[in-house]
């Protein structure tokens, strides 16, 4: 099969403005982490997410780890985690010595099923990590009510949800603490990077200390009149974002509304072109929230061999992949938890190209190729 066009599954949107910001940070001489450019980015990110405090970090995984530590999760504790996610969510719980318990998800939007979460609560449970599924927020009002009634904390894995809203509130502000990813496959990116956001100053101060080996960041000692020699009272980590990354992130954050609008328009374009195709269901967006489309996930029905569709699309120049992971099926966790909805999404969903640089000709091509693939008896059963 000769592809007449290549459409990438994902693509960052970066250009001259980011290059200019890199020139400036190079000229400043401060390239290492937690410096003045990180501080500036943190203020802008807190404002954009409607939170009191933001901490720039090395990635989403380190942000989740910091959050779990400031919330006090440790050996003997259980943390309820949304099952259908990139396994960084479950891994972060493992890093603290606590046990992840996997809750099944909603069949329509793939976010944590609140009843499934409630059924896992026991005397060892300390909190819940909801995941904004490829960007679409979970049911935070119901989750907050559950957590309040059972004395649990609530975390938001907002790795994919920069720019999303839930009942008009921005992603990042929907739980006690939220963790973002700025990996190259996310909506805004510095190649790698992350952030922790939250309103509680005590927790965020502790996270800041832990993210730089357990002392206050060097920038806080700049310009002091006496020699400041910090003393270490905890074994923190290096989970810092570099100021080079922060320079890029400041530009990316200003682009965020336009990038979300471009992805939304691509999603609308797919809906127009593919709404009538038999054998697949297009993504659903709950009425009270917005979807930033970190990925565009299509669900196949029983008549379609998902793996064959992905491979045939790739052959035709259309970037495609499976959706995301059913965590409870990953051997690392050795769990007895059962999540049939998540297990089904894991084998029936696939991703179509989604990024802010897609043009109408790309959407036409993808739709045409997907129709041709699904018309082929080789992908049917
Ligand atoms: C990408 C992703 C992560 C991991 O992000 P990193 O920045 O690579 O650590 C965590 N959770 C979810 C839901 C993700 O999609």
Automatic annotation (TrEMBL):
SUPFAM superfamilies per UniProt: PLP-dependent transferases
Similarity section: Belongs to the DegT/DnrJ/EryC1 family.
Active site, renumbered: 186 (proton acceptor)
Protein name: DegT/DnrJ/EryC1/StrS family aminotransferase
GO BP annotations listed: polysaccharide biosynthetic process
Modified sites of kind N6-(pyridoxal phosphate)lysine: 186
Molecular functions per Gene Ontology: pyridoxal phosphate binding; transaminase activity
Cited InterPro entries: DegT/StrS_aminotransferase, PyrdxlP-dep_Trfase, PyrdxlP-dep_Trfase_major, PyrdxlP-dep_Trfase_small
Necessary cofactors: pyridoxal 5'-phosphate
Top-rank taxon: Bacteria
UniProtKB keywords: Aminotransferase, Pyridoxal phosphate, Transferase
Transcription listed as a keyword: no
Xref: Pfam families: DegT_DnrJ_EryC1
Cleavable signal peptide: none
């Amino acid at each position: 099969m000769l592809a007449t066009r290549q459409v990438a599954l994902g693509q960052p949107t970066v250009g001259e403005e980011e290059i200019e910001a890199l020139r400036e940070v190079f000229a400043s001489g401060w390239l290492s982490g937690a410096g003045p450019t990180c501080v500036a980015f943190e203020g802008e990110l807190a404002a954009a997410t409607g939170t009191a405090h933001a901490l720039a970090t090395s990635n989403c995984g380190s942000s989740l780890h910091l959050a779990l530590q400031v919330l006090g999760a440790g050996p003997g504790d259980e943390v309820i985690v949304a099952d259908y996610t990139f396994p960084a969510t479950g891994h972060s719980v493992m890093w603290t010595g606590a046990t992840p318990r996997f809750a099944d998800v909603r069949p329509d939007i793939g976010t944590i099923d609140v009843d499934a979460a409630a059924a896992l609560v026991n005397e060892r449970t300390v909190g819940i990590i909801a995941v904004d599924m490829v960007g679409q927020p979970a049911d935070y009002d119901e989750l907050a009510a559950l957590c309040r009634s059972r004395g649990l904390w609530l975390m938001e894995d907002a790795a994919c949800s920069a720019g999303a809203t839930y009942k008009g509130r921005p992603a990042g502000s929907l739980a006690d603490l939220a963790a973002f990813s700025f990996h190259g496959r996310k909506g805004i990116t510095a190649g790698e990077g992350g952030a922790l956001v939250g309103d509680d100053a005590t927790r965020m101060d502790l996270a800041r200390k832990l993210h730089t080996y357990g002392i206050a960041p060097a920038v806080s000692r700049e310009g002091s009149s006496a020699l400041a020699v910090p003393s270490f009272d905890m074994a923190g980590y290096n989970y810092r974002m570099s100021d080079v990354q922060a320079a890029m992130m400041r530009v990316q954050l200003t682009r965020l509304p336009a990038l979300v609008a471009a992805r939304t328009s691509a999603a609308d374009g797919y809906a127009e072109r593919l709404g009538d195709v038999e054998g697949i269901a297009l993504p659903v967006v709950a009425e009270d929230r917005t979807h930033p489309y970190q990925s565009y996930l299509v669900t196949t029905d029983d008549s379609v061999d998902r793996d064959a569709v992905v491979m045939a699309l790739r052959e035709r120049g259309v970037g495609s992949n499976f959706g995301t992971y059913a965590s409870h099926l990953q051997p690392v966790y050795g769990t007895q938890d059962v999540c049939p909805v998540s297990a089904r999404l894991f084998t029936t969903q696939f991703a179509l190209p989604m990024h802010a640089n897609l043009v109408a000709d790309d959407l036409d091509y993808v739709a045409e190729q997907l129709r041709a693939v699904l018309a082929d008896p080789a992908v049917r059963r």
